[in-house]
Amino acid sequence: MRRALPPLNALRAFEAAARLGSFKAAADELGVTHGAVSQQVRLLEEWLRVKAFERHNRRVVLTPAARAYLAEIGPALDRIAAATAQYGHDAGSVLRVNAPATFALRWLVPRLARFHAAHPALRVRLETSNQPLEALASPGDVVIRGGPDSFYGTTVRPFLSEERLPVCSPGLRDRLPLRDPDDLRHHTLLHTASLPRLWDDWLAAAGAAGLEPAAGLTLDHFYLTLQAALDGIGLAMGPTALIADDLARGRLVAPFAGPRLPARRYCAYVREGRETEEPVAAFLSWIAGEGAG
Fold this sequence. Notes:
By secondary structure, the chain is α/β, with parallel strands linked by helices. It has eleven helices and twelve strands. Helices cover 42% and strands 21% of the residues. The protein is elongated, with a radius of gyration of 24 Å. The model has no long low-confidence stretch (mean pLDDT 89). InterPro entries: LysR-type_TF_proteobact-type, LysR_HTH_N, LysR_subst-bd, WH-like_DNA-bd_sf, WH_DNA-bd_sf. Belongs to the LysR transcriptional regulatory family.
């Protein structure tokens, strides 16, 4: 019997717009224009004879009928993608991972050789971004962010814990002693623009609220702040997960035993149902082992 199937492009446009809540975001993910997505959604609405979206400012909201339809076709499209990855020639061998730049540079990239050695048939395509998960136009296969947070249709796997504490180069510590937090008044404190209160929070926890350092320097990326600490420019609030190798090899030192500021754990976020696909499952298992180690 001939199947009554709507056009696949119309289904893809509808699913992306519904999942992302935006025609523009759907267009970015699919690599087409906003108008093309709108046209394909309109084609599907005509084909189904059902209105799919209500417009609310810049976002679109599913009608009840369209929400029920999405619940059926979303998993079906996921199964098509999984079957293509499993049976298609060379399909699924590239795993797209999206991670924050500092995490990628200082933790993930140095360990990727071990993943490739364990899974030589898989290639990781690493993309860096600090955008929130829900703002990503094309999230890829695995997204690494802080958490754990809950997102509709997404599975979250925490894999790495972290705290923050002051660190500096051994040379800086030897030039200007750091016996207790009060000695920080003779030093330069390094800040990251996106985390402006880290030093204030640590000084308050250390009983030195209001301390005025000799100087301060703000950089726009965390990896630049850590590099400045490695270069002996000042002290940074170091995330323990990302500086563990530097501490172990003596490139950085932690002059104070505490306090340590709590931080969110690193988590892997995957679209629900995809965590069992072989490439994704392999990466999730590997990164959990690396985080536990």
